[in-house]
Amino acid sequence: MNFEAVIGLEIHVEMKTKSKMFSRAPVTFGALPNTSVLPLDMAFPGTMPVVNKQAVINAIRVSNALHMEIDREIWFDRKNYFYSDLPKGFQITQARRPIGSNGWLDIEVDGVTKHVDIERLHMEEDTCMQHHLFDSTLLDYNRAGIPLIEIVTRPTIRSGAEAMKYVEKIRSIVTFADVSDGKMEEGSLRCDVNISLRPYGVTKLGTKCEIKNLNSIVAIEKAIEFEIKRQAELLLSGQPVEQETRRYEEVKKETVLMRKKTDAVDYKYFVEPNLVPIKLSEKFIQDAITSCPELADSKKARYIKDYGLSDYDASIILLDKEVAAYFDRSVKLSPHSKLLANWITVDIAGYSNKTGKTIREFSVSPEHLATLVSMIDKGQISNKQARQIFEAMIEQHGEPRALADKLGMMQVSDESVILAHIKDTLDANPQSIEDFKAGKERAVGFLVGQIMKKTGGKINPGLTSKLLLEELKKR
Amino acid sequence: MSYLDLTLADLHQALVAKKVTPLQLAAEALKRAKANGDNAFERFMENEAFAIASALKEPEANNPFWGIPFVIKDNFSTKGIETTASSNILNGYIPSFDATVVARLLAAHAVPIAKSTLDELAMGGSGTTGHKGPTFNPYDPKHERMIGGSSCGSAVSVCANIVPFALGSDTGDSVRKPASFAGLVGFKPTWGRISRFGLFPFAPSLDHVGYFTRSVEDAALALAVIAGSDIEDATTSHKQIEDYTRLLKKDIKGVKIAVISEVVETIRNKAVIAAFDETLTALKKQGAIVSYVSLDKQMLETIFPTYLTLCCAEATSNNANLDGIKFGPRFEGKTYQEVMLKARTAGFSELIKRRFVIGSFALMRENQDVLFLRAQKNRRKIVNAVNAILKDHDVIYLPAAPGIAPKFLESGDRLSDTYLIADNHLVLGNFSGLPSITIPIGFEDKMPFGGNVMGRAFEEALVLQVAEKIENATGYRNLSVKAVNL
To answer: Directed axis angle between helix A282-290 and helix A53-65, to 10°?
Structure first.
């Protein structure tokens, strides 16, 4: 490759606060159109914005997670432009004084740590949702005014893989901090990419393109890879890259032109006169930070240190906040953290992949999983049987002990019981004792098979073999 | 004599004594409103008024607004009542909520009888630019003189004894200037003292709720009812409301009154100066300490351009919601741009469009530094100068205007110091957000003119006290067209 890609990301995160950024209308997802709307959200004359305190707390939490400087005063500005999805004709945002500035985030790509510089984090309000039909456009004001945080990196990202890891980490932070659902496919986390190329060694930036319509984390990587190729081909053939906004087409896996960028729009920013600057006390900021739900990085360190999980298992569990919550609940009930982790990362994950169900929809409770794991640990059931019970738990929603009983598979590990079976079997098979003494090892297999047959397989096979050998030697 | 000719306080006594009922008052007020020929109303609220008034049976002795008919400037949101701000772009707009001040008056069982005319979207000072044409000054039967704006219809309502109280709004001097031209008390308390929720914004950093009464006592009574914090308006103050009526009677011994020489010097009207001087003498007699202070004349001359820049800039943004998509008249188009363009082209008068262009120009990236931000900085400088005066003085007292209400066809010299300073100094109250009250102090050619008292932030009580002493001295209490022509 002759060129270095220079990439910056803008991420919009929709907050799941109870009410909107400046109005008391509830924040809803998937509600009937135009049912979560107050006069303010439709910009009826005389309505006035009131700042949502929880949104400020959320912004502080994310700023802190991104190692940002947090402004001690909250200022809002108006961004003025006309558009059909913008009820007031301006958006209230934080142009001049974002709540968070100058942060960073370390990500790991192929085992190498990459430091991403973050320029700013600010709060703003969402626009209304447009549904374009053949000859008209429908407007849904439910989304109008939903609190957003926008996180803007400096152009320090160099590849699609880095961008993908960065977005994954941002999503992890906002979901674990309870700020957002972070669902790209539903638009609660949206990412725009700015990308330009320059020959290695050159410091001057090339002409950049903006890519929109990225609906998944994978799409970000694919879109960037395509765009790097496209721009490189242009440059290598002596053609200029033009400044444009491009859209990623999921099906074709390529970016297509949306519009050429002429001079950037003048948004005529000025300070929002209906909101006086809000002073934040140190206590307010500290409370916001200390009351923040535990983030994935901290959980991971704890999982490894306290529960002895492997880095890999911990990472898999922490990919999804709900999965982590499931692990947290089950690990409280059982000391067998590694076994639990194994079940969660293999069996439950496998089930999720197969059925497309999330762990929230998963019918086996953490309590039941903990019981199942302790049954395995105690040798009451074999791993094979445990899988059968697991299947039964999913289908019948039952308690594992009850199911094991029902399936007739509670494994016997009581030595006296096993020994009684062994003695009976040996008494009934004197020939096998002779064979064993004559050095015929397969006699042991035969005897174990007889015991299993007798007990319907409910007996602990390892223990049985061990005790059988001891008994044989005695005879 | 009709009870409507009484001040609010006296009318309250009549209601408590059951000499008259709210329903009788509402009927009489509506009759007078309809008979009025000054083009003061957008819409009468007959059904609402009768419904509210007829439900009021037992007078409330401690509630001065019980059964009192009042008028609402048509830029206050009124639930279920068309509210146009005298602009075609809002024709047919029926709000779904009441402005906080309206709600507080309704909660006090006051009776709204009409929505009054204003300069279109409150952007004007002449009372001539509403979509229904000019509003006339009832003091001038020949209809040659304006009453001033933008709260023109509300001023008419009170000086023509239609109601004793009317809501207005004041961004430059939109209550206090018409009050001067209509011989009324016009009060704009501190920014943040009264909720602006439901007031159609013109320029929020300058917008104030204000109102008209015919006595300072009535102004004090009203403040106690409508002031106070509001969760719907984040800029309202949590400061306690005072007992303004009780404090009114306090004497003004030792109160330091400043008169800005540079303002008075630009007033060439002898009647105004003579009347003003007389009130100064009276104030001194009551123990006030009057001193002339100086404020840089060049700075005073920047009030108007600074104001114009700031209010137009804020206005262009505030009115961007009027795009014909969500409410108001709808024009079809192939694109959203076409829909908006048609609505805004048809909906706004040329004057309004001019203001938007000025405001937009001032906010443009390449102009912001030299226009909008410079105006904001200058505003700050001017406010600092005013606050410096109020550090050593309790109030500033000045003639409210350079003369009586101008004729419609009169065009003053807009570059003269009289215009730039004497006609615009009330804007100091909007720049600073300080409480400011106009009271009548004299007449010329049977037309009234006023004086203005401005005090420190949230010192409404002191401002009212001084105003009341001036009222006592002039005897112009309960002034009205009717009283003057008796």
So the answer is: 70
Count of beta carbons in the 10 Å neighbourhood of residue B77: 29
Contacts of A83 in chain B (CB under 8 A): 336
* Three-class SS state of A219: helix
Lowest mean pLDDT among A1-15, A25-39, A249-263: A249-263
Minimal Cα–Cα distance from B320 to chain A, Å?
Answer: 5
* B 353-412 near A (Cβ less than 8 A): 360, 363-365, 368, 372
Please tell me the distance from the alpha carbon of residue A341 to that of residue A330, in angstroms, as a whole number: 10
E strands, A141-276, in order: 147-153, 189-199, 209-214, 244-249, 254-260, 270-271
Q: How far apart are CA B27 and CA A250, in angstroms?
A: 69
Instruction: Please give the pLDDT value at position B93.
Output: 97
ipTM: 0.95
CA distance linking residue B292 with residue B280, whole number of Å: 11
* A252: DSSP letter: T
Round the average pLDDT of chain A to a whole number and report it.
92
Element (H, E) at B447: strand B447-455
| pLDDT at residue number A1 | 56
The amino acid at B148: G
Q: Look at B234 and A88 and tell me if their CB atoms are within 8 Å.
A: no
Q: State the pLDDT at residue B343.
A: 96
- B397 three-class SS: strand
Q: How many residues does chain A have?
A: 475
Q: How many Cβ contacts (< 8 angstroms) between chains A and B?
A: 102
Q: Give the closest of B85, B205, B360 to A273, CB-based.
A: B205
Tell me if residue B227 falls in helix, strand or coil: strand
| DSSP 8-state symbol, A48 | -
Q: Determine whether the interchain pair A46/B314 forms a contact, defined as Cβ–Cβ distance below 8 Å.
A: no
Please indicate if any CB of chain A lies within 8 Å of the CB of B325.
yes
Mean pLDDT of A62-81: 98
What pTM, to 2 d.p., does this model score? 0.91
Judged by CB atoms closer than 8 Å, whether chains meet at B231 and A50 is answered as yes
What is the enclosing helix (H) or strand (E) of A445?
A: helix A442-455
The model's pLDDT over B301-350, given as tens digits with 9 standing for 90+, comes to: 999 999 999 999 999 999 999 999 999 998 989 899 999 999 999 999 99
Output the CA torsion A132→A133→A136→A140 (10° steps): -50
Contacts of B363 in chain A (CB under 8 A): 80, 268, 270
pLDDT in tens, A91-109: 999 999 999 999 999 999 9
| DSSP assignment string, B257-288 | EEEEHHHHTT---HHHHHHHHHHHHHHHHTT-
Q: Which of A422-436, A454-468, B50-64, B70-84 has the lowest mean pLDDT?
A: A454-468
**CB neighbour list of residue B91: distance below 8 Å, 6 or more residues apart:** B82, B84, B131, B328, B329
**Which SS3 state, helix, strand or coil, does residue B240 take?**
coil
CA distance readout (Å), B30 to B41, B45, B71, B78, B84: 11, 8, 10, 18, 20
Fold for B3-252+397-421+435-485, please state it. Answer: Amidase signature (AS) enzymes (3.90.1300)
Tokens matching residue A6: 């220079």
Q: Going from the N-terminus, what domains does chain A have, and what CATH number goes with each?
A: 3-282 (no CATH), 294-406 (no CATH), 415-474 (1.10.10.410)
- Positive/negative CA dihedral, B35, B40, B41, B47: negative
Inter-chain residue contact B196 with A48, CB threshold 8 Å:
yes
Q: Where are the domains of chain B?
A: 3-252+397-421+435-485
Enumerate helices (H) and strands (E) in chain B, giving the number of each. 20, 11
Measure CB to CB from residue B321 to each of A48, A87, A266 and give the nearest one. A87
Residue segments in chain B with a per-residue pLDDT below the cut of 70: 1, 486
Residues of B with active-site annotation: 73, 150, 174
Of the residues B191, B205, B309, the best mutation for testing chain A's interface (the one with the most A CB atoms within 10 Å of its CB) is B205
